[in-house]
Design brief:
There is one protein chain. The chain is α+β, with helices and mostly antiparallel strands and 82 residues long. 28% of the residues lie in helices and 7% in strands. It has one domain. Strands 1-2 form a two-stranded antiparallel ribbon. It is elongated and about 60 Å long.
Length: 82
């Protein structure tokens, strides 16, 4: 299975990955150079950071709809299409 991660290549040729990657054995990789503006890594974000943020900043209980409320909203949305 292939996966793509962003990296930064320094002028000396060293490569720094901009997001975590896990491999279970030595793995070959292809490097594609992208011309254009340098993108600020902090602005890219990644899934692990988003999940951590969501876990640490859950909605308070009163703001979360119950399962019945969610089902009611879904039913109303379906019926509104007629």
């Amino acid at each position: 299975m292939s996966q793509t991660v962003q990296a930064e290549i320094n002028v000396d040729g060293s490569i720094r990955l901009l997001e975590p990657i896990h491999v279970s054995k030595p793995t070959r990789a292809l490097v594609t150079l992208i011309e254009g503006e340098n993108i600020i890594p902090e602005r890219l974000g990644n899934v692990a950071k988003v999940l951590k943020f969501l876990q640490e900043n859950r909605l308070p209980d009163p703001a979360r709809p119950s399962q019945e409320e969610i089902e009611k909203q879904i039913a109303e949305a379906r019926e509104s299409w007629d």
